[in-house]
Amino acid sequence: MRRLSLSSRLALLFAACTAVVSLFAGVLFSRASEAHFVELDQQLLDGKLIGLRRALQDVQPGQREARLADELSRQADLALRITGSDGQRWYDSSTQIPTDLPKQSGLVTVSQTGTDYRVLNAPLYPDKTDSPQLTLLLDITHHQHFLQRMQHLIWLTVGLSALATALLGAWAARSGLRPLRRMSAVARGISAQSLNARLPEAQMPPELAEMAHSFNAMLGRLDDSFQRLSAFSADIAHELRTPLSNLLTHTQVTLTRPRPIEDYREALHSNLEELQWMAQLVNDMLYLAKADHGLLMPKREALELADESDVLLEFFAPLAEDAGVTLSREGHARIEGDRSMLRRALSNLLDNALRFTPAAGSVRLSIVDQPHAVQVSVENSGDGISADLLPRLFDRFYRADPARQEGSSEHAGLGLAITQSIVRAHGGQIRCESAAGWTRFVIELPKGQ
Fold first, then answer.
1. Which regions of 75-227 does DSSP assign to beta strands (E)?
2. What residues form DSSP beta bridges with 155?
3. SS3 of residue 411 by DSSP
4. What is the pLDDT of residues 4-53, one digit of tens each?
5. C-alpha distances in angstroms, 350 versus 355, 358, 366, 401?
6. Taking Cα atoms as reference points, which of 370, 361, 333, 356 lies closest to residue 441?
7. Of 352, 356, 341, 363, which Cα lies nearest the Cα of 416?
8. How many CB atoms lie within 10 A of CB 423?
9. Verdict on whether the full-model pTM lies above 0.85
């Protein structure tokens, strides 16, 4: 079955609510009218009862029927029956009075042969136990017809109100849901070439403004991700183009004529270096892809960061000595983490620091044990990084050095991206600060992760 639209659901809901309210109001009005008629009939019969008692008091037996007829003639729809204390019928003012009437005192409604009566039983002499009984009958058929017509009118009003409300509700719902249709139209028009489309938040009603804001934010994230993906694909092609071209050219030149075995060996060694760099690039890209899908699962082992840092500093010591750079480390802390992954992250930071530190400069590794986290920072002296470049340092294939070399066999611009993935896999954060001739990369790792 086809599901109802939101506009149809709202219209039906409006119609149902209106029908229920109208029906409830009609029933209350009908009950109030019926109670009002009962009260009027009670007052009328009570007044007639007093008049009849007065008319029959101190009257000669031969004049009673004349006095009763005179009293009853003033009310055409009123009839009277008088019965003795033994139940014998003494007097009927009309031949149409029903034979069986209720005997209980008070006001009772009776319906016989298509006629409705309000019946009131009362003693002729209230202070006597053997008093004859007066039974007053008031024809209320016209009252009942009025109540029936009113009930029919109520049902007709309920139906018409529900229909009118359904139509008006459908129009109101369709008008009110126009912003949603606008959102749907924008969503249908979104493609890889039109991710810059946005909903006008200022024109949205308050109930949809937050949804429009979230929708625009989602489009912004998709646009940013798509731009990054496009740039990533272009960077991959850019990085692989030069080594592939070198391999192809070198191999073609080598095969142009017969050469000594040593020339072939030298060509193979040269090609091997390019292939190793390409293999490392592919491995790094696969590593980042695993990180994007949450597949990096660090091992948990107790590590002394000071010892791990000293191992890395010892490894980079010859390079630092050749460059005239001083290496130092201060502080210590223990943490649970993956030894190989954390070593790789710190190694990338130390390698970057050594490359951008001028001669006679220094690289410092600091470890600070905080109450809820461990902070590890790698800082180096030298030219700083402008503030507008800091947010892009962890992008893939991004190099802050403007003298970018195509297809460099040493650095492809993935080191910081890999470092960030490792830190995030450990539940931490990394940031870069650059000021006053120092550039600092700060890693914060939570304890107990």
1. 78-83, 89-92, 106-112, 115-123, 133-139
2. none
3. coil
4. 777 788 888 888 888 888 888 888 888 888 888 888 888 888 888 887 77
5. 9, 14, 12, 17
6. 356
7. 352
8. 21
9. no
